[in-house]
Amino acid sequence: MGVAVSISTANATGANVTLADPTLTTPTATPKLKSVAPTDVGVVISYGGGSVLDSNSVEEFSSYTVQWSTSSSFTSTSSATLKASATSNVWIVNNSISGISGSFSNGTAYYFRVRGSNSAGNGPWAVWGGGTPTAVTIGAPSSSGYNTVTGSVVIPSSITVATGAQLYTGYYDQSTNTAYAARIGAPTNSSGGNAFTVEVPTGSNYIQFAILDQNNDGLINAGDVTNVFGNNSNTVSVSGNLTNQNLTLPSTNSNATVMTQFTQSTVTSTSTSYSLNLKLREQNKLPVAVQLTAASSPNVLTPLDVSNYCQGCGNLQFQYDASIGSDVPAVNDTYTFSVTYSDGTTGTATGTVTAVLGTSNLATSLSPTTGSSTSVTPTFTWTDPANASNYIYQFYMNDSSGNTVWQIPSNSSNLSGFSSSVTSITWGTDPTGDTSNTPSVSSLTVGTNYTWSIQVQDANGNTATQQVQYQP
C-alpha cells in the first residue's frame, strides 16, 4: 500500500511508511505438480509456482510437505518437509537430504502427494496423477530405451565444498519438465572433476545442469552453486550415447547480463526502436542491493539504483529496462554493477552486449493484419528469418488497452520459447503442448484493434520483434 505525498515547490515532510507483516489465512491453493522423475533412492519433482501465488504474486506457503506411500490411499506414509524457495521450482528428495522422515527403496513403486503450509495452517493435497493416482518406481532408469551419457562436473577450487553437501547433475527436459539426474554423494573440487553417468531419453530440448546442494536441503537456494540460473536458452540434444559431457560450475557470486531488443512496429506506418535489458541474478551468493555504477556507452545514465521487482521472471533478479530509441547498441558495450549480498559482502559484476539483432533477423509476412481477414478466431502465420534454427520464438497478443490476450509460452511456463518448426498458431491451441494456455477471451471482438507479434531470440537472449495490428 502506497502513501500519498503531495510535492510542490517546497520540501515534503511526514512521508512515513509503517511496515507490518501480512495477515495470513489458511491456504486454499495446491501446488501444480509437473513431473515426478525417479532417481537412485529418490525422486526429482518439478512444480509450478504460478498456482501458489496470491493476488500480489507472493507465494502463499512458507513450506511444503512431500509424502509418499506404497498405497494410493496414503494409509502409511513417509515424508520430507522443504522450505518455500522463490528461486527454485524443483525439489530433490532422496534418502540423503535433511528433513526426511522415512526412506525410499529402489525398485519399489510409490504414490506421491504434496501440500503447502503457512503459519495459519495447511493447504489441500495435490496428488501426482490427480483423481487417478500414478505410481512412480524408484531407481535410476535402466539403459534399455535410454541413452547413456557420461562426463564429469568440475567444482572450481575457489569453492569450499560444505560437509555433507550433495552434487546433482543431469539433463532437464524443458518440454516435459522432467529431470534425469545422478547424485554424487561426496563431491570434491579436485581438478579431475566428479564423474557421472545418467540415462537420458532421446530429445532435443534439454539443458545440462549441475547443482552443488551445500546445505543438503533438496532445494536450489542461497549458498548453493549451480549453472541453472539464466541457462534455459542453452539447449542441447541427446540422440545417442554420449561421452565427455563435462561441465564446470561457475565461480562467480552473481551473473550480470545485457540483452539487446530491436522492435519493428507496422501499424499505420513502420517504426523501429532499440532497448536494453540489464539483469543481475544470484549465482553463488544472493544479491540484496544492486546499483549500476558504470557504462561504456552513454545511452544509460549512471549511477542508477536497480530494482529487484520482476513479476513472472521465474527467478529473483534485479532488472532494469532502458528504452534508447534510435540509438543502436554496440557489441562489447559493458555495464558494471555494484552488488551487496545477503551475507554482508560486496562485489562487482559486469555484463557485456553479445549481439544486436536487426531487420534481417525479424519474422516476416505476419498474417492476419488489419483488412486481411474477418475472423474472430484467426490462425496466425509468419515466415522465419534466415538461419531459423539458430533462434527460439515467442508469440504475444494484446488488446487496445495493452492487456495480454495470449502469450506463448505462457508466463508460468519453464520454456523460453518454441522452435522454428512452428510457423503458424491455431486459435486456442498452444503449439508447445500446454493445454492450459489458452487466450483470455473465447474470440476477438469485431472492430477492436489488437496488436500481435513474433519475437525472435538468440541463445544469449537478444531479441528482434515484428509487431503488427489486426482488427477483425
Walkthrough of the structure:
The chain has 472 residues and is mostly beta strands. The chain folds into four domains: 32-137, Immunoglobulins (Immunoglobulin-like, Sandwich); 147-248, Sandwich (Immunoglobulin-like), CATH 2.60.40; 254-352, Sandwich (Immunoglobulin-like), CATH 2.60.40; 359-470, Immunoglobulin-like (Sandwich), CATH 2.60.40.10. Helix content is 0%, strand content 42%. The radius of gyration is 24 Å and the shape is globular. The model has no long low-confidence stretch (mean pLDDT 89).
Please give the CATH class of the largest domain.
Answer: Mainly Beta
Low-confidence stretches: none
**CATH topology (fold) name of the largest domain:** Immunoglobulin-like
CATH H-tier superfamily of the largest domain? Immunoglobulins
Distance between the termini: 40 Å
Please work out how many helical segments DSSP would assign: 0
Helix content: under 10%
Shape: globular
Structural class: mainly beta
How many domain units?
A: 4
Compute the CA-based radius of gyration: 24 Å
Largest sheet: 7 strands, antiparallel
Strand content: 35-45%
Just name the CATH architecture of the largest domain. Sandwich
Q: How confident overall, as mean pLDDT?
A: 89
> Total strand count, please?
32
TL;DR of this structure?
The chain has 472 residues and is mainly beta.
Task: Kindly list the characteristics that best describe this protein.
7-stranded mixed β-sheet, mainly beta, 472 residues, Immunoglobulin-like
Describe the secondary-structure layout.
Layout: E1 32-39, E2 42-48, E3 63-69, E4 78-83, E5 90-94, E6 100-101, E7 109-118, E8 121-122, E9 126-127, E10 136-137, E11 147-154, E12 166-173, E13 178-184, E14 194-200, E15 203-213, E16 225-226, E17 236-238, E18 247-248, E19 254-266, E20 270-282, E21 287-295, E22 304-306, E23 317-325, E24 334-341, E25 346-352, E26 364-367, E27 380-383, E28 392-398, E29 404-408, E30 424-425, E31 450-457, E32 463-470
